[in-house]
Amino acid sequence: MKLLKERILAHGQNLGGGILKVDSFINHQVDPILMEACGEELARRFKSVGATKVLTAEISGIAPALMTAKFLNLPVVYARKSKPVTMPDQVYLTLAPSHTKGRMVELIVSPEYLANGEKVLIIDDFLASGATILGLARLAQAAGASLVGIGTLIEKTFEGGREALSTLGIPVESLVAISSMDNGKFEFAG
Amino acid sequence: MKLLKERILAHGQNLGGGILKVDSFINHQVDPILMEACGEELARRFKSVGATKVLTAEISGIAPALMTAKFLNLPVVYARKSKPVTMPDQVYLTLAPSHTKGRMVELIVSPEYLANGEKVLIIDDFLASGATILGLARLAQAAGASLVGIGTLIEKTFEGGREALSTLGIPVESLVAISSMDNGKFEFAG
To answer: Which end of chain B has less neighbouring CB within 10 Å, N or C?
Structure first.
């Protein structure tokens, strides 16, 4: 997606060690117009998969998932990383490693909003190792839901996430794929 | 706002102790169409205040703030509750009590995205005691920004937040105001 790629080139920062800082338009400050365009494009790519729900993880998945869900006219559920008082005692919970926190975090979804038979489209900001997305996939499977697609804004192809997700056997789409961040630069795939 | 009030009546749950559960359309599962309508209405109310940035707090402020910012064509910054590796060492940080966590949480904004002279519109899901919003106001003031308005989806007038915010001397708008949650019911103000 040209718009997002241009923004990464103009305002993304390669911090080294494979860390891409996009805090000025995705992860801390968010450009809602860009995010809406990304959501529209992800919705276009997944319009035929029959999703009944969009699933993401707090925090930075919320903006792209919300905008994608808007164009698909679907509810979006974001997995919580801590259980609020409003959630029932019995929940779906899994652990996934957090890149930015350097430890395992919980991903929690209430059975109230992820039902047996649901068709789940997972949307997140990054596809890196795929660990968070695999965690979301486990939550959906635990609920008896089926997975119909995975969409992300930015894929770092050199972290192997696409291979890790291949066992799920569902379409994986990313709007921009970065194949290398060596030497402080960005190289794009495709 | 009629649409939101109807949704609260149909799907909000009064859990007692002043806790309003809106997890099926705002706080865990989100209805993006409703959220867009709320954002449009908040943007309409604040279109003349001259805001240059929308400020909110992760997590549940993100959806309404993003949609409001979209209609105002402004960037939105969400205060983080933990400092990611992409953030500089020097940050604006304040503490605010969390209702749902029962403890103090940090609210952190990078100086990169909140600048001296900026005009800040704060958007959040709830106006209850006002403590989170006052925390966001302190961050804006620490950055040398001025506050131009505060908008929330749902106000619980019986928790005194509006009075707590009155010292700021800026317009405070809520789309729905609940004046009582006694006896398992909802009473609306106005």
So the answer is: C
